[in-house]
Amino acid sequence: MPVYLAGRGTELETIRTRLARTRMLGRSGGPLLAFYGSRGLGKTSLLRAAQREAAEAGYLTVWVTGRDDVALAPDLAASLSEEITRRSAGQKAKALLQNLSKVQVEVGLPGAKVGVEAGRTPTTAAVERNLADAGRFAREHDHHGLAVFVDEFQEAQLGDRRSLLIALQHFDGAPEGYPVAIIAAGLPSLLGAVPEAATFGERTDFVEIGLLGEVAVAEALRLPAQELGVSWSDDAVLAAIEAAGGYPHRVQLIGDAAWEAGRPQRGDAIEEAHVRLGAERADQRMAAVFRSRMAKINPEQRRVVGAMAELGDQPVSRAALASRLGISSEALSRPRQELIDRGLIESAGRGLLRFTIPGFASFLRAHPDLE
Questions:
Q1: How far is CA 184 from CA 35, 79, 191, 218, 335, in A?
Q2: Residues sharing a CB contact under 8 Å with residue 140, sequence separation 6 or more, in sequence order
Q3: Secondary structure of residue 208 in the 3-state scheme
Q4: Which end of the chain has a smaller Cβ tally under 10 Å, C or N?
């Protein structure tokens, strides 16, 4: 089934507004714009859709993914080189491309010095200079500005996070305009990873990504099918909404599996029976996801999620969870935060916790061997 980004119009408009500042004013896009939420909610798809839209609108765009085992600066320089080479005439970009190539080679070497000023690291200096040069190049060569998309921002090394934030801080107050905007996405732990890197990171515009509403789920199923001349019956859509629980990844799994079950041709319709088959196959796929997540946590964390599952499918209070485990509320703090950072659970309001994926609690109750 074709993929369609549904229910994220508000978030896309937020990104458009941020980028418009670089186009209209020729200046920085302002502080970091960061979308956060648990895995499977479509954060990466949101950033990819925004990148495609920005590129079509006339921005230079680059994509990097945060990793704790690899420095970001060389990857950023390589992505900038690829984009500038693809979008610009070679002679115009020759000097900039040479500088970017130099960074890719030198910045990761021990003792490397790439335009380092007093009190600044090679990575910070390289990142800021590369972004500034690329932003100016974009403005001077018929592009609106530079849009940098950073996925898994919380996974980037501390120095890399700091470098990006420092660059934005300098651009925002510089007399000379730097038309650069950085849009990031990550797990809820991003909320702590940003200010950890730089205190002024608290100025970041954080936007939470949540579950999809019923209308958005219906759009995600019906609109791409319509493009191929296939419809979804009302009963099929309602069954899919109920089975998906608003979780985007599950919507995609159910849609794909229902499509495979129905094998529709132009003029055909997806019916409720196809969705029921699709939901069964989606359950099998989700079971693999649940097992994978349980395999990555330690015994203490397994006991916590197991106790949450025993308390039911609705949000559970921290006090009730601590009581179920036979520990104090204070003793629950560390494993609770670890599970939030891993994206397995999240706050559901004051003193309440819930699983980030619908169906996780019932799965654990059905498979007590995993606890």
A1: 6, 16, 12, 27, 26
A2: none
A3: strand
A4: C
Q: What is the pLDDT of residues 323-335, one digit of tens each?
A: 999 999 899 999 9
The model's pTM is 0.80
CATH topology of domain 9-208: Rossmann fold (3.40.50)
Please write the tens of the pLDDT for every residue from 282-337. 888 889 989 998 999 999 999 999 999 999 989 999 999 999 999 998 999 999 99
- In the chain, % helix, strand, coil (3-state, to 5) comes to 60, 10, 30
Q: Which residue has the higher pLDDT, 287 or 173?
A: 287
Which CATH fold topology does 296-370 show?
Arc Repressor Mutant, subunit A (1.10.10)
For the chain, which residues make up each domain, given as ranges? 9-208, 214-293, 296-370
Q: Which residue has the tokens 């950085």?
A: 182
CA–CA–CA angle 186, 291, 208 (5° rounding)? 20
Would you state the structure tokens that stand for residue 261, as one six-digit string?
Answer: 């079950």
Alpha carbon 113 to its chain's center: 32
**Cβ count near 52 (within 10 Å):** 12
Q: What does the alpha-carbon distance between residue 284 and residue 290 come to, in Å, rounded to a whole number?
A: 10
Q: Under a CB-based contact definition with an 8 Å cutoff, are residues 189 and 223 in contact?
A: no
Q: Which residue has 């495979």 as its token pair?
A: 260
CA nearest to 324, candidates 347, 306, 301, 300: 306
Q: Say how far apart CA 18 and CA 31 lie, in whole Å.
A: 9
